[in-house]
Amino acid sequence: MRATDEKSPKNIDTLANVLANNLADHIYRDTLEKDLIEGDFFMTVEQVSEHYDVSRTIAREAVSQLRALGILQSRQRKGLLIGRPDPVKLMARWVPFYGQSDQGGEVSTLAQLRYALEVGAVDLAVSQALPAQIEQLATIAEEFEEIASVHGHNQESDEIDLAFHGLILEMTGNPLITGMHRVLSDYFHASKEGTTPPDATKAIREHFLIADAFQRNDGEAIRSLLRNHLKGTLGTQSQTASGAQTANGAQTANGEPVAEKSA
Fold this sequence. Notes:
single chain; mainly alpha; Arc Repressor Mutant, subunit A; Four Helix Bundle (Hemerythrin (Met), subunit A); 2 domains; two-stranded antiparallel sheet; 65% helix; 3% strand; disordered C terminus
């Protein structure tokens, strides 16, 4: 009975996956050790099978894994070439699945990453921002007020809000920072669809204050404002991502609690 179990389809598939994963790791290490760069020839699939002494099925599966990561590329009549992974595209693939179940606080972890990216990018944004970008930030703040003061956080105002925060990251001139922040922002924006648009008074005020601080080139003020503006995203995004509201009431598109209206 034991011998039969070891040869069952399930066990065979598991062994094949382990072999393919190990081979993919081995190939990855070899490409680094050989200092291969984008466009360099690596091998053909047949040569991979022979060189690493594995079946073609295992070789193809390992190569498929590396192609999915962008480490290898297939070219007709050329074989396998060294590729150039795109971290932003890879991130766009795994973020929705990572936060899908939120059994281990994954959504809160993603919210913390978004927070760290935006607040941590302030110095670079201030030093690299173009005058036209600073003026555009002020314009977006005005556009946000025009819509959000009437409708709160509806789809249109939330898209303007995304553009406001996205522009701050674009000011860094770093495509990785900008792209990764966009992936996270889009994820949280999509996860809030169907919630009741809350009052946006606090967000409107803070947008203007942030835009004004950029015009003054005041990095410390920007950091302080963004911390306050985004602090609600830490520890609460798990609830908003599932369409729920916090125990203290509704939240804005950035996750901060809505300011209570004065009597």
